[in-house]
Design a protein that fits this description.
Barwin-like endoglucanases; N-terminal domain of TfIIb; 726 residues; 28 strands; Dimethylsulfoxide Reductase, domain 2; single chain; binds iron/sulfur cluster; 25 helices
Length: 726
């Protein structure tokens, strides 16, 4: 294939011999790009391309998506089930029956000896929605543990909690198309170009066409901040104060949509009384943003025909994460910016199917956004599944972060980890290591047997990966999209759905219940349960989803297309149909820099890697572009400490230390360092992870560290780098 001017330096693309393209959806971030994977004559995946007719990505893919076809045969994949009596012994290869029998026996043994909740299950945002639903049925209807959660507690639970408090239900109300209509966009703690490159491209195209103001709130000068009309370099953890002050100005200057507030919200008086206390001068002293800038941003937002706020981990991963989300929702409600084109509080989710688990996994309740606390919901699901409603707990159990503490104290004795890697992702990894060692039984179910947490397991179950199976994901804008099976599972690995069904059969109650075998059958079951719910998918089927390149819920039976927005009629999910304006007093409760630990530590992503690098760490080109952990440090601060660009430094917190390569840059202020979170045995050795009281999400982005040169590390690290280069 030739590009460029004829006969003059044409660019020649290598012909990879693709004979067939198969439709699927990217398995990394929550953008939800439609991908076609190219297969050669032998059926091997050899290429990938974006799908031109897909509304989400319109033919584009980011670096990770372009190289995703290489995943299928990456090193470290698990080909066989493995087992050992004790975690200090080597694994031995066993049959699937042997491994599954042991898992079922251990669950029964632990529950019989210590009680049902002594066995915990932690899943992911990475498997198919049909698999989440089936796991929920198994956990809630068969095993019956209430200590069942997912790693979405580490990234999205503040958004979930905030939406529930404000609107009565989870579910992002907006969509990417809002960029085409909005008159003002505030992005908080969201570095789109590195986190969600294709959403960034949609936003950038929309701004190039219409030039609406972009306001970025972030303590770092991120790539997105560099393009902002206004960059608010906020003091970490003080977003609630900023949003209270914006609401203060909007109310004072008569910019609120009081007609909307009266018709569709409750709680205005208490909210207004709290906001009254947060004049811009007071807020400026706490947030570090000058009062006139706060006034300017409030006027820009309040005067726009429609205005939206997007956010990611900068809001969620905080001791005020849930309050931060409520503060954003308050601002949008106050200005009537919910459910209208260009007017929305839109959380940008992390993992490819974090939304699928929120909707259908039953982690925080029962399927289809039903609540354990609601007797009618318990009754309805019990009848549908054929179980006794009394078998269900009457309120949700512990979150992931609390489950680890319960292992420490001995309340939880057994754990099943599904596609999650706490040894790299949890804060204070040294503490997590000691915690995992206390378990009587740990089973790890993952596509990769070299995932760090597997060092502590007794049984390893090799799971099929991404498009080695079939099912749906839901993206950030509630779009359900299809993953077609591109190639068979690696070795003897099996789809997670198959594994859940096999475990169910090993319990008497599981044999009495119906566990459909194919994803399509499971999807049909979910459709029935979704009828009349906010998350109604009864008008969808696999063929229709593929034909439309994804459909946004709600899409009730008989409706041809999905619904781009929620709450367009101003009716919310609280029993009275109204949204809540919630007063948010501010309490400064983070670990803060002091004389001993004088720097804020901030964490985040790089574009080349995804989460704990279980997958992207195996892709050659992604590793060449981003091979090693590094730390951004302000040159003025570095000079005082005698630290040079591209030298090594030791970073120490009250939890531990790590040695990193230093990149001097003015992207971070003088009192802050930034380290990407993807690398094992690095930044999470340092993080504290205080928990948000509502969402139990850890505050990864706010803790204190000190930095010193590490000259003894230079030679060893250079040798390592040279070895890693090839
Ligand atoms: Fe995949 Fe996200 Fe990249 Fe799209 S933007 S290709 S969904 S990683």
């Amino acid at each position: 294939m030739l590009f460029g001017r004829r006969n003059k330096n044409p660019i020649r693309l290598h012909d990879k011999g693709v004979v067939e393209w198969r439709y699927t959806t990217c398995g990394y971030c929550s953008t939800g790009c439609s991908i076609e994977v190219g297969l050669d004559r032998e059926g091997r995946p050899v290429s990938a391309r974006g799908v031109g007719g897909a509304d989400v990505n319109r033919g584009k893919l980011c670096l990770k998506g372009i190289l995703e076809y290489e995943l299928f045969r990456t090193p470290g994949r698990g080909a066989h089930p493995l087992m050992r009596a004790h975690r200090t012994e080597p694994f031995r290869r066993v049959s699937w029956d042997e491994a599954l029998d042991r898992v079922a026996e251990e669950i029964k043994r632990i529950q019989a000896r210590y009680g049902r909740d002594a066995f915990a299950i932690l899943s992911t945002g990475q498997i198919m929605t049909e698999e989440f639903y089936t796991l929920g049925k198994l956990a809630r209807g068969v095993i019956g543990t209430n200590n069942y959660d997912g790693n979405t507690t580490l990234c999205m639970s503040s958004a979930v909690s905030g939406y529930k408090r404000s609107f009565g239900s989870d579910g992002p109300p907006g969509c990417y198309e809002d960029f085409e209509h909005t008159g003002c966009l505030i992005a908080v703690g969201s570095n789109l170009p590195e986190q969600h490159p294709v959403i960034y491209w949609r936003l950038r195209e929309a701004r190039e066409r219409r030039g609406f103001p972009l306001i970025v709130v972030d303590p770092r000068v991120t790539m997105l901040a560099q393009q902002a009309d206004v960059h608010l370099a906020i003091e970490p953890g003080t977003d609630v104060v900023l949003f209270n002050a914006l609401a203060h100005v909007i109310l004072k200057e008569g910019l609120a949509d009081m007609d909307y507030v009266r018709r569709h919200t409750t709680g205005f008086e208490d909210f207004a009384a709290e906001v009254e206390r947060w004049d811009p001068d007071r807020a400026a002293r706490i947030t570090g943003i000058d009062a006139d800038t706060i006034r300017h941003v409030a006027r820009t937002f309040g005067q726009a025909e429609s205005a939206m706020v997007i956010w990611t981990m900068g809001i969620n991963q905080s001791t005020h994460g849930s309050d931060g989300v409520v503060a954003i929702n308050n601002l949008c409600l106050l200005t009537g910016n919910v459910g209208k084109p260009g007017g929305s509080p839109l959380s940008i989710t992390g993992q490819c199917n974090a939304m699928g688990t929120r909707e259908w996994s039953s982690c925080s309740g029962l399927p289809g956004y039903r609540l354990l606390e609601n007797p009618e919901h318990r009754e309805e699901i019990a009848r549908f599944w054929g179980v006794d409603p009394e078998f269900f707990p009457k309120r949700r159990g512990m979150f992931m972060t609390d489950i680890f503490r319960a292992i420490e104290t001995g309340r939880v004795k057994g754990l099943w980890l599904i596609a999650t890697n706490p040894m790299t992702s949890m804060p204070n990894t040294e503490r997590i290591r000691r915690t995992l060692e206390k378990l009587e039984f740990l089973v790890v179910q993952d596509a990769y047997e070299d995932v760090e947490t597997n060092q502590y397991s007794h049984v390893y179950l090799p799971a099929a990966l991404w498009a080695e199976k079939e099912g749906v994901f839901t993206n950030t804008e509630r779009r359900v999209n299809l993953i077609r099976n591109v190639c068979p599972p690696y070795g003897e690995s099996k789809p997670d759905l198959w594994i859940f069904n096999q475990i169910a059969r090993r319990f008497e109650q599981g044999r009495r219940m119906r566990f459909p075998e194919t994803p399509r059958q499971v999807f049909e079951e979910m459709k029935q349960l979704s009828k009349g719910r906010l998350v109604d998918i009864s008008g969808m089927d696999y063929e229709k989803i593929e034909a439309q390149r994804g459909i946004q819920w709600p899409c009730p039976e008989g409706q041809e297309k999905g619904s781009p927005r929620l709450y367009t009629d101003g009716r919310f999910q609280h029993p009275d149909g109204k949204a809540r304006l919630i007063p948010l007093p501010f309490e400064d409760n983070n670990e803060r820099p002091d004389e001993e630990y004088p720097f804020w530590l901030n964490t985040g992503r790089v574009v080349e890697h995804f989460h704990t690098r279980t997958r992207t760490g195996k892709i050659g080109n992604l590793n060449r572009f981003s091979p090693t952990p590094y730390m951004e440090m302000n040159p003025d601060a570095a000079r005082e400490l005698g630290i040079e660009h591209m030298s090594y430094a030791r970073v120490t917190s009250r939890r531990g230390d790590a040695v990193v390569l230093v990149q001097l840059t003015h992207r971070v202020p003088r009192n802050m360092v930034f380290i990407p979170f993807h690398f094992h045995d690095c930044v999470n050795r340092l993080t504290l992870g205080l928990l948000d009281p509502h969402s139990r999400q850890p505050a990864y982005k706010q803790c204190a560290v000190r930095v010193e040169p590490a000259p003894d590390q230079q030679a060893a690290a250079r040798r390592n780098l040279a070895a890693r280069a090839y």
